[in-house]
Design a protein that fits this description.
The chain has about 130 residues and is an alpha/beta fold. It has 7 helices and 5 strands. It has helices at about 10-15, 20-25, 35-50, 50-60, 70-85, 90-100, 110-115, and strands at about 5, 30-35, 65-70, 105, 120-125. The N and C termini lie far apart (about 30 Å).
């Protein structure tokens, strides 16, 4: 069984119905998202569709995706990763989650894939044109 560490952009693609991301969701593999990336998704979704719609999406998502809370260890790992790879705050927590839990980072962010794929497993999923 695989463990997928999901980036916020993959959640957007899932709700947009992008076929290339369905394989990460329509299986029995473990799916996780840290609360920083979850908040990133919720914020951007709310800006486009409203707070209520965002809350509905988040609640649905959490029925099959495990949230990972931020603790001191994860925060310390994230800042070190941010310095080492020059990543955004959200992306540094994405990679820190993979560092802590193991698993495959699933993202559509080329920068993340290029910068960390030497040390972490990354599935780069192209963005949908929809």
């Amino acid at each position: 069984m695989q463990r997928y560490i999901l980036d916020a952009n993959i959640i957007f693609q899932f709700f947009a119905g992008t076929p290339s991301v369905k394989r990460y969701f329509l299986n029995r593999d473990e799916k996780v998202i840290n609360v920083i990336n979850l908040s990133e998704f919720a914020f951007h979704y709310a800006r486009k569709f409203g707070v209520k719609a965002s809350g509905v999406r988040v609640n649905y998502l959490l029925t099959f995706v495990k949230p990972v809370e931020v603790d001191r260890e994860l925060a310390e790992t994230a800042y070190k990763i941010r310095v080492k790879y020059n990543l955004s705050l959200g992306d540094s927590f994405l990679v820190a989650t993979a560092d802590k839990m193991g698993g495959i980072i699933v993202t559509s962010d080329h920068e993340v894939a290029e910068r960390v794929s030497g040390e972490y497993r990354v599935d780069l999923v192209p963005l949908s044109k929809t």
